[in-house]
Specification:
Blueprint (H helix, E strand, L loop, with lengths): L19 E4 L9 H8 L5 E6 L11 H18 L7 H4 L3 E7 L7 H15 L3 E5 L8 H17 L8 E5 L14 E8 H4 L16 E6 L6 H10 L4 E4 L13 E2 L2 E2 L9 H8 L6
Helix pairs in contact: 1-2, 4-5
Length: about 280
Amino acid sequence: MPYLTAPADARRTAGGEQLGFGVPGYAHPLLAPAEWAELARPGTPLHWAVLNIANGPGSRPDPHCLEAAGRLRNARERALHGEAPSDTVRASGGRLLGHLDLAHGERPFGELIADARSFIDWYRVGGFYLARCPADRDRLPAVRRLTGTLHALLAESDSADGGGRLVLGHGTHPYPGYAEAADQLVTFQGPWTDYRWSQVAEWTADYPPDRFAHFVHGVPRTHLEEAMRIARWQGAGTIFFTDRSDRSDRDGWGERNGQSDPFAALPSYWDEIVSRIGPGISE
């Protein structure tokens, strides 16, 4: 049993609130066609998925990514209009997010906004995933300025209903003020060996589960139920669990920018985890 420090009221998803997937970024659709096809399949409990072409939007529109983005938008539209009754999670989410790399606060504001505009103009994204987002108090004003500008850009776009969605990819618990700077925070990203003994910051109990996401790699199939129980206990409403490792992706699909990315392909137990958190499933 993981060691948790949250008070009892932090166990706010234990009563059956439904989890959904956040996908940090699959490989290019040419390399991972099955992954992108699964995201558009009716009944996949998708909150959002990240499009990352070349650590950003790339230098020009990519026809394969345009097609994948279009399929996701169409799936969301069908769910929103009740044409796909099994897509209850997608109807409240299902957005495609553009990948913006903050480089822990080192990237210039102008570069980030230029990338954001390209994502909106080319791929009609419904929000942004701010990768390598800083977590310290001193960087918070700069992140607030960026998220405020991104929300304004999304509000002007016809692809981002409801103002779009912004996710801060800290990978750890940040200074609490970041919770007011975006729609969702990634407060854990790492291996199962750390996650199963992880602690949750007490301040997160003041927010609902849809404000937090957990990404865990190296989760054995036999520990899926335990991993989902930890996510619910710690108050995370969005997850991505995989049995892939960041050390060895033998088929090479996980390579991105010279680094092995365990989240770039489907876990071997994808169908099982979809059925566990799909419509009508609770623990």
